[in-house]
Write a structure and sequence with these properties.
11 helices; mainly alpha; about 250 residues
Length: about 250
Amino acid sequence: MTGMLVLMGGVGLAAGVLNFAAAGGSLLPFVVMSVVLGIPPLAANATVLAATPFSFLRAAGDVKDTPRVMRLPLACAVGGTAVGVWIVSHVLTEGTFRRAVPVLLIISVTFLLCFRHVKKWIDARHGRTHLPSHATLPTLAIGITITSMYAGAFGGGVAVMILGLLTVATSWPWDRVNTAKNVVCLFTSVVGFFAYVPTGLVIWPLCIVLAVTMVLGSFLGKWVTKVVPAKTLRLVVAVLTTLSAGYLWASS
């Protein structure tokens, strides 16, 4: 168990760095738990999602500065996440979820590899910093609801989905979009934490280690990405995730 906890500590640190600095961090602990440690996918998924809010704690200070247009979408994030958790914990069986995981992982990798293009898209609009008109509110509300349902059910690659959505619905620069993404992820992950706690799926020793190291990773994110480019970290996660998807597919 000690070796398992040490391994998850390192994985949680990397996940915290990626989650806050860019996107895709939550895929890493899920892959390690389900493939390397042989933990059932439902339990691995619940454990990761219960620990994820701790990698976004730094975003709590940004909630008060979030544009007013985000108030309804954030409420939608709460409701959508709750629905996603309910589907996974009350509707899907372990076998069904395991068969779905390889597909979800490939979808997640696709969004993860799109991150660079999404950021370029945002950077291209950097000069247009005005707040969005009310016409974008339905797009934000509907889009956040759908992505939050996915976040509650699985969550891999959801940050890139949110970044893309915010780029379509607003004209904000990268810093504001990334901050809004982190706030949305904070809301969805906090709801996920409280929703998964009573399910009995969370493996608490691993969850606690992940939570602590994800917090450290979120604070180290800026420094780490200067040493190791975020795109390199994302590429490593994408390769590991793709290989894991193939393994899980073959073993289903």
